[in-house]
Amino acid sequence: MAYKSMYKNEIARAAGVSTATFRTWMKSDKQALETMGITPRQQLLPPVAVRYLCEKYDIDISQ
User: Fold this and answer.
1) What pLDDT score was predicted for residue 15?
2) For an engineered disulfide with 59, which of 12, 22, 23, 54 has Cβ 3.0 to 4.6 Å away?
3) Rg (CA), the chain
4) Angle at the Cα of 62 (from 5 to 19), degrees rounded to 5?
């Protein structure tokens, strides 16, 4: 599957959780995301981060 850049709220919606819950999930992955160049305030996530989060949390974004 080819991943594309997505906003945090889009990924949260696909996961079936609130944006606040999704941000909490991201906090537990802070170090890995920082390695990818992702900052906590960043809203648009690049494909590499989208792939990482979708694979880790088993989120289906193919809808």
Assistant:
1) 96
2) 54
3) 10
4) 60
Chain position carrying tokens 């944006």 = 19
As a whole number of angstroms, the distance between CA 33 and CA 47 comes to 12
3-state secondary structure 1-63: CCCCCEEHHHHHHHHCCCHHHHHHHHHHCHHHHHHCCCCCCCCEECHHHHHHHHHHHCCCCCC
For 61, counting Cβ atoms within 10 Å of its Cβ (0-12 exposed, 13-18 middle, 19+ buried), the class is: middle
Between CA 31 and CA 3 the distance in angstroms is 21
* 30-61: pLDDT as tens digits: 999 999 999 999 999 999 999 999 999 999 99
Please give the model's pTM, rounded to 2 decimal places: 0.91
